[in-house]
Amino acid sequence: KAGVTQTPRYLIKTRGQQVTLSCSPISGHRSVSWYQQTPGQGLQFLFEYFSETQRNKGNFPGRFSGRQFSNSRSEMNVSTLELGDSALYLCASSFDGLLTDTQYFGPGTRLTVL
Amino acid sequence: AQSVTQPDIHITVSEGASLELRCNYSYGATPYLFWYVQSPGQGLQLLLKYFSGDTLVQGIKGFEAEFKRSQSSFNLRKPSVHWSDAAEYFCAVGASGTYKYIFGTGTRLKVLA
């Protein structure tokens, strides 16, 4: 079956703009998580959605938001972009989001903020 | 609070040599532990996981890891490294009561021909 897909794969924005990233989970998976990966901070959890509800949120400012649709596809939005938002954004899907579930990661969206 | 430490930022081994990547965690109860691998331009792929039971866990691509509660460690091993194993390896702990992982900072593996 198809894996986790993320669009777009690459994105260049300027400071102050906003951006929306998309994640399509594996068919049948209801949980989608988002992570930010940077050389300095490593992999940091952003938030997790299950059945259109945010269940967990990491320590990121309110500029970072997300949502999940009824087909489990998820989007994350970053408003008022800052240079420090440049990162690889990864999404992962699993059946229920439980720690015992296997999370499958997408290839990521590389965001560059100029 | 849970945390994960990977003491080695970079490791270089020769092809065919054995490999051990270190991972130490901080957690009050029995942790949910994972090892992931990330190849350049790729997402993360799960190598293996430990929740309970046998402390020696077998994973994909010939990797194994051993959970040692007394040392708070979950080291990843492979008896003979292949050039295709060159990648970055991440240890992670599942944060109990949440639906998130806490990742270590990663170990970048270089394999010499």
What labels would you give this structure?
heterodimer; A: 114 residues; mainly beta; seven-stranded mixed sheet; four-stranded antiparallel sheet; 0% helix; B: 113 residues; six-stranded mixed sheet; 52% strand; globular
Task: Report what the structure shows.
The complex is a heterodimer of chains A (114) and B (113). Chain A is mostly beta strands. Helices cover 0% and strands 53% of the residues of chain A. In chain A, strands 2, 4, 5, 6, 9, 10 and 11 form a seven-stranded mixed sheet that branches. In chain A, strands 1-3-8-7 form a four-stranded antiparallel sheet, with no helix packed on it. The N and C termini of chain A lie far apart (37 Å). The model of chain A has no long low-confidence stretch (mean pLDDT 95). With 113 residues, chain B is an all-beta fold. Chain B is 0% helix and 52% strand. Chain B is built from no helices and twelve strands. Chains A and B meet through strand 4, strand 5 and strand 10 of A and strand 6, strand 10 and strand 11 of B.
